[in-house]
Design a protein that fits this description.
mainly alpha
Length: about 240
């Protein structure tokens, strides 16, 4: 019994570390001017890397920096290593001056580049991902045309959906669920949060969410939503 509680404690600890690290990646990415897809790619690379290896083997901050560097290449939003180092250093040491281009700087730069190469090998060079963003955009446009205009305009369904989609990268949902299923789930969750009903959904032969993704089920949607809620619970615990 004690062993089981210890294992759960270790799992919770790892989940909280990954939450903090993806928050670090997102905030550093924003300061570097990265767009949403590169940031999502960086988070996915980070989660996928630690899905293949132990958290004890590598410094998670260094992995985060390398994930940002690699993501910039994958989606062709190239970032200078020096900019990544300076932004991440300032994030971790907000009161300090930018790093001098000295031995410490070059050692850190070399570590990022070497870890990037290790990431590529460990992930079998599969670092290009299908993200939920394009699906969500398509679903939102379709649903907007389906909905009553007044009902749509007075509730921030689109804004909430994009926020939920961004927050899902704090966890490893991107590894466990299909991109289109995540897109449907965050949209479903946003509608539930604001108490908005899709017209004719109760009488339709096929529910709106299954129109968008034929193989999605209500149970799967609820599982994704539960995982999202757990992420928000982590946020309050860490804060």
């Amino acid at each position: 019994m004690e062993s089981g509680s210890t294992d759960q404690s270790e799992r919770d600890k790892r989940i909280k570390i990954h939450f903090k690290m993806t928050k670090f990646i997102m905030e550093a990415g924003i300061k570097l001017g990265m767009q949403s897809i590169p940031i999502a790619t960086a988070c996915t690379i980070y989660h996928k890397f630690f899905h293949e290896t132990s958290l004890d083997n590598y410094d998670p901050y260094l992995v985060g920096m390398s994930a940002i560097y690699l993501a910039g290449k994958v989606v062709e939003q190239h970032l200078r290593t020096r900019d990544i180092i300076n932004v991440c250093h300032r994030y971790l040491n907000p009161e300090s001056e930018p790093l001098e281009v000295d031995t410490q700087f070059w050692e850190l730069r070399d570590s990022i580049v070497q870890l990037e190469l290790l990431m590529l090998r460990l992930l079998n060079f599969r670092v290009s991902f299908q993200h939920p963003h394009k699906y969500l955009l398509h679903y939102l446009i379709s649903l907007k045309n389906w909905m009553n205009r007044h009902s749509w305009d007075r509730t921030p369904i689109a804004t909430a959906s994009w926020a939920l989609l961004r927050d899902n990268y704090h966890g490893d949902l991107c590894l466990r669920y299909e991109a289109q299923h995540i897109a449907v789930a965050v949209l479903y969750f946003a509608l539930q949060c604001y108490g908005v009903d899709v017209p004719s959904n109760d009488t339709a032969e096929t529910p709106w969410w299954q129109v968008f993704s034929e193989d999605v089920t209500l149970m799967l949607i609820n599982n994704i939503i539960c995982d999202l809620i757990h992420i928000y619970t982590l946020d309050t615990e860490i804060a």
